[in-house]
Design a protein that fits this description.
about 80% helix
C-alpha cells in the first residue's frame, strides 16, 4: 500500500505541472495564490512520496521516474513564472538552456539539483515580494522539513556540495 501511495504522490506532481501551466495561461499573476498552493503541495508530495517509498516492502513503480517527474514539475513552475510575467520569458528560456547545457556537459545530477534550488530561491523571493505572510508560512514549512529530515540532510547536503566542488575542480567525471 505504501508503494501505491508513493506512486500516486509522485504522479500528482505531473498533474500539478499541468495545473501550473493552465494557471499561467488563464489567470496569469492574478492566479498567484492558487499557484503558490499548487507549488507548496507539489513540494510536499515530493517529500511524502519518499517517506512512503522508504517504508514500503516493495519497490515503487515510479521510482526510476521520480527525478524526471521532479523536472517536469519544475518546468511547470518555470512556465507559470514566465506566463504570469513574474520572470521574463527570455530569462526562463536562458536558464533552461544553460542548465540543460551544464547537465549535458557534466552528466551529473548535482548540477540539475543546483538549478532546482535556484528555482526554489526564485519562488521564495517572488512569494515574499507578493505575499509576505505566505512567505513566512513557507519558511516555517521548510524549517519543519529540515528538522524532520535532519539526518538525511546531514548526509546528502555535504555529499552534494562535495560533488559540486569536485566538478568545479575538474575531479569528477
Amino acid at each position: 500500500m505504501n508503494a501505491l501511495i508513493a506512486d500516486l504522490l509522485t504522479f500528482s506532481r505531473i498533474l500539478a505541472a499541468g495545473v501550473l501551466v493552465w494557471l499561467g495561461l488563464t489567470g496569469g499573476a492574478s492566479a498567484a495564490p492558487a499557484a503558490m498552493i499548487v507549488v507548496v503541495l507539489g513540494w510536499t508530495t515530493d517529500q511524502l512520496d519518499g517517506w512512503f517509498a522508504r517504508r514500503s516492502p516493495a519497490p515503487t513503480r515510479l521510482k526510476a521516474c521520480d527525478f524526471f517527474v521532479d523536472l517536469t514539475f519544475y518546468a511547470g513552475i518555470l512556465a507559470y513564472l514566465a506566463l504570469a510575467r513574474f520572470l521574463p520569458a527570455w530569462l526562463v528560456a536562458g536558464f533552461v538552456i544553460l542548465g540543460g547545457a551544464a547537465w549535458l556537459l557534466t552528466r551529473r545530477r548535482a548540477v540539475v539539483i543546483l538549478c532546482l534550488r535556484i528555482i526554489d530561491v526564485a519562488c521564495g523571493v517572488i512569494v515574499f515580494m507578493y505575499a509576505p505572510a505566505v512567505g513566512l508560512a513557507l519558511v516555517a514549512w521548510v524549517t519543519v522539513l529540515a528538522v524532520a529530515y535532519r539526518r538525511r540532510l546531514a548526509e546528502r547536503v555535504p555529499r552534494w556540495f562535495d560533488e559540486l566542488r569536485g566538478l568545479w575542480r575538474g575531479r569528477v567525471r
